[in-house]
Amino acid sequence: MLSNQAAAPGKRTSLHGHWSSRMAFILAVTGSAVGLGNIWKFPYVAGQNGGGAFVLVYLACVAIIGMPVMMSEILIGRRGRRNPIATMALLGAEEGKSANWKFIGAMGVLAGILILSYYSVIGGWTLSYVFKSAVGVFADATADKVTAVRDGFVASWSTVALFHTVFMGLNIFVVARGVERGLEQAVRFLVPALLLLMLLLLGYSISTGYFDEGLAFMFKPDFSKLDWDSVLAAMGQAFFTLSIGMGAVMAYGAYLPEETSIMGSATAVAIADTTIAILAGLVIFPLVFANNLDPGEGPGLEFITLPLAFGQMPGGTFFATVFFMLLSFAAWTSAISLMEPAVAWVVEKFHRTRAQAAVMIGLMIWALGLGTVLSFNVLADFRFLRGTIFDNLDHLTINIMLPLGGVLITVFAGWVMCRNSTADELGGSGPLYKLWRLLARFAAPIGILFVFLKAVGLLPDLS
Ligand code: TRP
């Protein structure tokens, strides 16, 4: 007799439909992965942490921690074929363990909601810069002017709220249309468009004559600039940029056709995501050096430094518009993946249509986002713990919830699920499977915990 444990998952289907092909899945996860994290955050975090050495640590984090976590998420998602909460409960029980593993799913759904609440504000900000660039606001602008434009934008809470509203509207629209007609259609157009725009900008950046400086900054390691905080930042960045640790990839995995290779897809996504982050650095740093600007400028890099750089250059208005459009597309395909776990959960649990669920969850996230909107103006002086409401949300989600989620997800896939189940999903128990299992059981959870405890100061300094 067939063991029903092995037979049942294969027959499961998702209530939400499935990706029409392996390529659609890869595009969707790449669309999720490539976002503000690659183009806005990676260059400035790398800049603040000294460039090359940080990039190396980040690459190691992607390979040793990011890849096994991502594969774990996809395999859990595909085996359960439900929203992350129901999937973890189902698989926990099916493996003869506890259904309480569903709390990891719940933490993920919550993390997605919290992340999107501020991600959308930055996404809206990006969108507003498409229009500003297009009408030539930055043409020949001085540093003072660009700063004034930025300050003027963030000072007006109603403008920030307006673009946050537009951005959330776009997300609700796509997610409401469902997996194939919404998510898949969006990524099929947006991800290739994003790549094209990126290559266009790269050509532009090479033409500045400062490409070598950019290369050197990104790839010449200076380990004196590295401390545990930067290692935590590199790990947090790896989590954030790969969209792992909160069930977004798990939710997408639930729609993955049975025969598709999980290892192959995860590898393709990790390579695409890393390539785009590095390309973004190679677009941005030459512009920074060509204009004598500071690579360690911080979050303002994209909104101050770049408009300034573009403003000084021939064709700047056009390329600035292209750049912010690229960034908006990237943010959009990421935002929809942050919503998907919560929306799938509402559809399954409360028997709502996708449209109803998307509007409900979207409105909730929109309302939460007002906290971030106000962090830049009315409530800018309201500081606690790590700073403004935005600073706290950013820290709580990226540095705490995602790593914690990552540890629990790999522990679940590596220790709670039996060998047969995971080998079944990963296509056999060959050497690559063994490598995955080693990383998922030991390297990833231990690595994450170590860096995490070290950075929050809970481990003694041995050096
Ligand atoms: N990866 C996206 C970026 O780099 C952000 C993102 C989308 C994300 N979905 C996520 C981050 C899930 C963490 C978890 O901008």
Largest sheet: none
How much of the residues is beta strand, in percent?
under 5%
Helix/strand order: HHHHHHHHHHHHHHHHHHH
Beta-strand segment tally: 0
Overall morphology? globular
Walkthrough of the structure:
This protein is mainly alpha-helical. About 75% of the residues lie in helices and about 0% in strands. The chain is built from 19 helices and no strands. α4 packs across α17. It is globular and about 65 Å long. It starts with a helix and ends in an 8-residue tail after the last helix. The N terminus is likely disordered. Tryptophan binds next to α2, α3, α11 and α15.
For the structure shown, list the relevant keywords.
single chain, 463 residues, mainly alpha, 19 helices, 76% helix, globular, binds tryptophan
Short characterization:
The chain contains 19 helices and no strands.
SSE layout and pairings?
Blueprint: H1 4-11, H2 22-33, H3 36-48, H4 52-80, H5 84-94, H6 102-134, H7 143-155, H8 157-176, H9 179-206, H10 211-219, H11 228-241, H12 248-253, H13 262-290, H14 305-311, H15 316-350, H16 354-375, H17 389-416, H18 419-426, H19 431-455
Helix pairs in contact: 2-9, 2-13, 2-15, 3-11, 3-13, 4-5, 4-10, 4-11, 4-13, 4-17, 4-18, 4-19, 5-6, 6-8, 6-15, 6-16, 6-17, 8-9, 8-15, 8-16, 9-13, 9-15, 10-13, 11-17, 11-19, 13-14, 14-15, 15-16, 17-19
The chain binds tryptophan.
The site of tryptophan has 16 residues, from helix 2, helix 3, helix 11 and helix 15.
